[in-house]
Amino acid sequence: MAFISDDKDIILDQNVRSPILGLYSTFKELKKLTYQKVFVFSCDNPLFSYEVVDYMIKECGQYDCYMPKWNNGFREPLFAIYPVEKAYKTSLRNLKQKQYKLTKIIGEDWTVKYVSIEQNIKNFDPNLLSFKNINKPGDIKTLESVSDKNL
């Protein structure tokens, strides 16, 4: 078993709290281990569906990045498949430039496939529990009621 700690040497402002720092640290470590791709998901989405993950991995194919997208255009960068080497380079560059927006990880030269949440992923996760965040106490009650109905 191994743990990855945030590489805080890359940022000058030690008060920066952004998921991009954790992703950068992960990409850096996985690059050393010669991983090609990584499936990233957020720790505050505990009800992700195995079927959705399996579907995305199978569909990713030769795309550099495979990311869910809502009909309103909102993308889910914390529930996506990334190319380790390319994502390491872009996240490093972004941290140095103080660009903390997650969607900026995607390089201009990447092949990206956006998969529709409503049209594709909903087939595997009808209530879209994979995208339900737990950030405050009220969210836990909502998730308990939803998950009790679906388990």
What does this structure look like?
The protein has 151 residues and is an alpha+beta fold. The chain has one domain: Spore Coat Polysaccharide Biosynthesis Protein SpsA, Chain A, CATH 3.90.550. Helices cover 34% and strands 13% of the residues. The protein is built from four helices and four strands; from the N terminus they run H-E-H-E-E-H-E-H. The chain has a two-stranded antiparallel ribbon. A two-stranded parallel sheet has the order 2-4.
Q: Helix- and strand-based class? A: alpha+beta
CATH topology (fold) name = Spore Coat Polysaccharide Biosynthesis Protein SpsA, Chain A
Alpha-carbon distance between the two ends: 30 Å
The H/E string reads HEHEEHEH
Count up the helices: 4
- Level of helix content? 25-40%
Q: Please name the fourth-level CATH homologous superfamily.
A: Spore Coat Polysaccharide Biosynthesis Protein SpsA, Chain A
For the biggest sheet, the summary is:
2 strands, antiparallel
| Oligomerization state | single chain
Number of domains: 1
Poorly predicted regions: none
CATH architecture: Alpha-Beta Complex
Q: For this structure, what is the CATH class? A: Alpha Beta
Report Rg: 16 Å
Mean pLDDT: 87
Strand order of the largest sheet: 1-3
Could you say which overall geometry the principal axes of the C-alpha atoms support? globular
Number of DSSP-assigned strands: 4
The amount of beta strand, in percent, is 5-15%
